[in-house]
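Hey, quick one: can you model this chain's 3D structure?
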Amino acid sequence: MNAISPDLHAADDSQARLDRLSELSERLLSRARALGASQAEVSCSEESGLDVNVRLGEVETVESTRDRGIAVTVYFGHRKGSASTADLHESSLEATVAQACAIARHTEDDPASGLADAELMAREFPDLDSWHPWALEADAAVDLALACEAAGREADARIGNSDGASMGRHASLSVYANSHGFIGRERGTSYSISCALIAGQGEGMQRDGWYSSALAREDLQSPQAIGRRAAERTVARLQPRSLPTAQLPVIFAPEVSRSLIGHLLGAVSGGALYRRASFLLDSVGQSLFPNWLDIDERPHLRRGLRSAAFDGDGVATRDSALVTGGVLQRYVLGSYSARRLGLQTTANAGGVHNLRVSSNAKDLAELIAGQSRALLVTELMGQGVNAVTGDYSRGAGGFLIENGAISHPVDNVTIAGNLREMFQRIAAVGADIDTRSHIHIGSVLVDGMTVAGEG
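Sure thing. Here's the predicted structure for all 455 residues.
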């Protein structure tokens, strides 16, 4: 295998390149066995990308990237060693395997280390519709970014400045192989367009933006639509006020509500659990949410942002319930964390694959209309979440709702609570899903949080 292709988008030779990565993986596994490893695994990847940024009608940056990586992990019994390289010369590859073996010989035994069980390896590899190459050249990418920013700047006279617009495209090929005889191949593309604008003058300036991301170009919003949406959001934030401290219902808009599920995932992940650093220790079988709420993992969705036939250990993925009727059904485990906990892997080495949260409401407008006084959160700031206790405190911006309608923008407030209580107090989830994430969830109404502002 020689130099990486100039651009994985330029000519679709992806299958041939995956063949070469597979052959390389098998050679490295064979070398590891020859050096005495009882088990071994190899990850090989190639990536390419183009990112352009413009501001105030001028090009700021154009960046073309190409990358590759080879990672080798070997096991001598329960002793583990890893090494990596980007150099594909035979001498470098030989040295990488030898280094991994040397490291393994000097590490302590870890009874949980080793490959996932052979019988759990994926055997079916459906087409997940994740490969949509687009030979977008730099000039055309710049034109799209400029059109996006121009649409935003022209949408409202109060837009006086810009933080710029960007256009990006990326492609990746990867192979994971191990000494069970497993070889898994993946290829994927992704695209994004974004715009951030500034409205107002002096201390009254406000900034906001919008973006679109997808695996295929036809699923992107148009540059003009993104620019106009960025302008609408920015202008809507002008002349914000703070609020007196109070207990209020809080509505999380779809673009921020997924963070709540992110905190759940962090708390039920294997690493946090075996380290005893989670507020949800020993919570399987407990009611965490209202009894109408379900969360399901769907790893085989076509064109899903995190669709995969196998996880980072090669274990076959499958549809699986995380929460049913409000009750936590399982943790989120790879093979290592599962062994540490005395449990079975849930095929989540590397994370979850496409979560869908059930809804019991229509959309954000319906949630707003049902509130006499509440806070709509459209932006979250800071990292004030204690993973051990579940205490939650984050800076927020958004809008005050009065008598079923948006009253005025709000900033400089903090919303606080405890995640266990917040999960239980979810009164509604809308069907207005933000599809730019692998966590599919709509607007979320939490019935009662402390909103701390001025006074």
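One thing worth noting: The first helix runs from residue 14 to 34.
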